[in-house]
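Q: My labmate handed me this sequence with no annotations at all. I'd like to see what the chain might look like in three dimensions before we decide whether it's worth expressing. Could you predict it?
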Amino acid sequence: MKKYLVCFLALIILITSVLAGCGNNGTKVSSNQTGQTSQKSDKKVLHLNLGEEPPMLDPQKSTDGVSFQILNAVLEGLVRLDSNEKAKKGSGLAKDWEVSPDGLTYTFHLKDDIKWSDGNPITAQDFEYSWKRALDPKTASEYAYIMYPIKNAEAYNSGKASADSVGVKALDDKTLKVELQEPTPYFLSLTAFITYLPVEKSFVEKVGDKLASSPENLVYSGPFVLKTWNHEQNIVIVKNDKYWDKDNVKLDEIDFDMIKDLNTAAQSYDSGQYDEINISGDYVAKYKDKVQTHPNGFTYFLGFNNLNSVFKNANIRKAFTIAINRKAFADNVLKDGSIPAYAFVPNGITGLNGEFRKEAGENLFKEDSKEAKILLQKGMNELNITKLPKITLLTDDTDVAKKEAQAIQQFWKDNLGVEVTIQNVAYKVRLQMFSKQQYDVCLTRWGADYNDPMTFLDLWTTDAGNNNVKYSNPQYDKLIKEAKITNDNKLRMDKMREAEKILMNDMPVGPLFYSATAYVQQDYVKGWVRHPVGVDSDWKWTYIEK
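A: Here is what I predict for the chain of 546 residues:
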């Protein structure tokens, strides 16, 4: 009995010593010279709430902002935009480039000794393969059109030309030649966009359809690599020890949860579990002076299914759009610095000599509840109906999206006398339903992929991959095409201004607000780069200072 007791006590001492040696989140506990315990963190870990499951981490197929955040952290293209939105030489995998005098040919030179996370060299052939993969009709990339500035890209994507005719060619392992269809002032910044990020040719051919389905089914070229992905629960990314600029990456790890409920996220932030959270509504008042905001280049809007038996009618679309009081919506529901939208291209996008929005006019339509009722009745008469069928508003299932949808539902009831049903679904499901036109009206958003009005306007041409409302107007298509092929920037802006007026007259989409991101962040988090266009956040330079 005594023998067993001695063994038991020894076991307890052993367990106690082990437990005393480690704590949570990579923290070790040790004794100092005074005999007191002190904590020392071995790893620099950032704890965040991603909010949603990333639907697609294949860069040539991905279309959503949540996936973009992760992909921008684990992959890198020819350039990486800095905090001033500049594509500087040496910022990404390209060390240098030349542009021909006519602006049609770019020759990129890759850095020496750049490697994939599996140790293989990153080559110009990987870029050629990846860009043509995005354009391959078999890939069915919804973002293929963002590569249309490249010579014969659109022709190949539409099945009218071969892959060999596309103006992308690896001259050798370190040299990539790109020929454009026409001069594109923003092309360099485009190469930082997610669709342009490379994948390793040999690896893709090896894993096939499993690409990006799990951490082991993707190789990485960016500051971080994907370590853990528990679907619908959490993601962990860790520092990439093969990254060319690893010495300037200060974080060892970023842990992401996927909490949809804002109250739960706020409680986790208050308890120190999260280092930053995005907030809206009443939580802006809760955190008061600690709240920071930044413009994020998004227009939130109502997408009307133009194939729908009711919303194929322009007057009904206009009625539902102008029946909403945007100022009341922004002041009482959002409370995060977002502002009412009366056009589609948001503030902050560059125009001819300043902001496009100011140059094109800020109010392309106005709210009017009385006019909304008149337009609704006019539209119903045109459709020869006396009663509207059941109408459903599709939106996400987050706490914020639910409150936004309920407010819109109430505006329509009060100002149109129309009862609308709300359908809340998971983010990934909403994207799928929107892309397949499985909705009546959808509360959704579009963000700037690059700093030019075209990123918002070519979205609605008849054959655009992300035209999920199925709007079609030949005159609109003509104007956008003319804007794309001219070298005269004033004429280009004029064409886009005219096109936007047509869009707002037809109202296939109803702009609601230009959003801003309101957030609270712990004081010890430094170097977080937030972009007003493209991917919202870049953590390459983020560090923790305690």
